[in-house]
Amino acid sequence: MERITISQLYADAAAYADKLITVAGWARSIRDMKNLGFLSLNDGSCFKNLQVILDKALPNYAELAGQNVGAAFVVTGKLVLTPEAKQPFELKAES
């Protein structure tokens, strides 16, 4: 699968909405919550970060949530538009 840059997502999020995409970058922050986790990812293509939702059902969730800031990630998931939230979209990780 072709890697999409975060700047491409911010330029035209509607083109990638509800599609399975792959992004790669470095963790700016990782938060482990009760039922899910949040990963703030940046690939250097723009100043903005991409919020990735990590479901506890992921087979390697514990390993992902235990990583440190600066760890490299390759994430495949579905891009979901969230106009009512702080960020315009987020990626729900599948792998």
List the helices and strands and how they pair.
Blueprint: H1 6-11, H2 13-16, E1 20-32, E2 36-42, E3 50-55, H3 61-65, E4 72-81, E5 89-93
Parallel strand pairs: 3-5
Antiparallel strand pairs: 1-2, 1-4, 2-3, 4-5
Summarize the structure.
This protein is α+β, with helices and mostly antiparallel strands and 95 residues long.
Number of helices: 3
Order of helices and strands: HHEEEHEE
> Helical percent range?
10-25%
Secondary-structure-based class equals alpha+beta
Largest sheet: 5 strands, mixed, barrel
Q: pLDDT below 50 for ≥5 consecutive residues: which ranges? A: none
User: What is the overall shape?
Assistant: globular
Instruction: Report mean pLDDT, rounded to a whole number.
Output: 94
Rg calc: 12 Å
Q: What is the count of β-strands?
A: 5
Which sequence of strands runs across the widest sheet?
1-2-3-5-4
Please give a handful of descriptors for the protein shown.
single chain; 95 residues; five-stranded mixed beta barrel; 16% helix; 43% strand; globular
Describe the structure.
With 95 residues, the protein is α+β, with helices and mostly antiparallel strands. It is 16% helix and 43% strand. It has a 5-stranded mixed beta barrel with strand order 1-2-3-5-4. A hairpin with a 7-residue loop joins strand 2 (36-42) and strand 3 (50-55). It is globular, with a radius of gyration of 12 Å. The model has no long low-confidence stretch (mean pLDDT 94).
